[in-house]
Amino acid sequence: MPLLEIHELTQYFGGLCAVSDFSVALESGELVGLIGPNGAGKTTVFNLVSGFYKPTQGKIIFKGSSIAGLKPHEITGRGIARTFQNIRLWNHMTVLENICVSQHYNMGYSLMDALLRTKRYLKQEKRIVTEAMNILEALDLARYADEVPPNLPYGLQRKVEIARALSIKPSLLLLDEPAAGLNSADVKDLISLIQRIHREFDITIWMIEHQMTVVMTLCSRLKVIDFGATIADGTPDEIQNNPDVIKAYLGDDAI
Ligand SMILES: Nc1ncnc2c1ncn2[C@@H]1O[C@H](COP(=O)(O)OP(=O)(O)OP(=O)(O)O)[C@@H](O)[C@H]1O
């Protein structure tokens, strides 16, 4: 059984069809890419899978159960984590607090426990901090635990966002343009980081990315969409030489 199955997903925004009849199946352990020109509908697909939008039509099945229309926190609870095209960290909180706050969907204590600072509350809070520090250590970020994100270079902020997504121990990680805004040295580091996460965290990764070196190096297969519709599906080599893909990116003159 695939980890994630999407059948004929369609999303309208008023009269605009942002995603049309999109289907895909991701097997556990895969690292695959979703590419396409600007405005193709890629982020909309991720927003539908992560519960930010309710699909106009279609099925989204994760671990055998339908998740279409669930709230984002419910989908996180099922084991899907994501990052965003524009980094969304809490800039007034430290790196450690940013990771801890994402754990609170799974805190295991009540409001009353928190108000009375019961034993259960203190024990769970300690667990959350320990687990957050473990993830920061695993990604070589522990030394930045007490910094606020704006004090860190952009490449490290991206890494913190990935650490935050990993901290919920997802089975599926959605990365939305992780290389956006990074310089070439940071892109190289990001490629190694994603390879390491994929190897060490027993996780399935689905990524949107415009930088071809990143997807060509990392992904075993790619799906290409344009104006919401799928135009190609295949290995990076097949995709690079597909005339429909070349046309979508470069226009008719390219072929
Ligand atoms: N909430 C929304 N309301 C109305 N239109 C939207 C909304 N979200 C996206 N769209 C439109 O849907 C289309 C697909 O947008 P989407 O952001 O999914 O594309 P994308 O492939 O991720 O683009 P990019 O690579 O530029 O990020 C675009 O025309 C966009 O303007």
What does this 3D model show about the protein?
This protein has a single domain (4-254), classed as P-loop containing nucleotide triphosphate hydrolases (Rossmann fold, 3-Layer(aba) Sandwich), CATH 3.40.50. 39% of the residues lie in helices and 23% in strands. The protein contains 10 helices and 10 strands. The site of adenosine-5'-triphosphate has 12 residues, from strand 2 and helix 1. Keywords: ATP-binding, Nucleotide-binding, Transport. This is ABC transporter ATP-binding protein.
Structure at a glance:
With 255 residues, the chain is of the alpha/beta class. It contains ten helices and ten strands. It has one domain: 3-Layer(aba) Sandwich (Rossmann fold), CATH 3.40.50.
Key features of this structure:
single chain, four-stranded antiparallel beta sheet, alpha/beta, 255 residues, Rossmann fold, binds adenosine-5'-triphosphate, 23% strand, six-stranded mixed beta sheet, 10 strands
Describe the SSE topology:
Elements: E1 4-13, E2 16-26, E3 31-35, H1 42-49, E4 57-62, E5 65-66, H2 72-78, E6 80-82, H3 95-102, H4 111-116, H5 119-138, H6 154-166, E7 172-176, H7 184-200, E8 204-208, H8 212-218, E9 221-226, E10 229-234, H9 236-240, H10 243-250
Parallel strand pairs: 3-8, 3-9, 6-7, 7-8
Antiparallel strand pairs: 1-2, 1-4, 4-5, 9-10
Bound molecules: adenosine-5'-triphosphate.
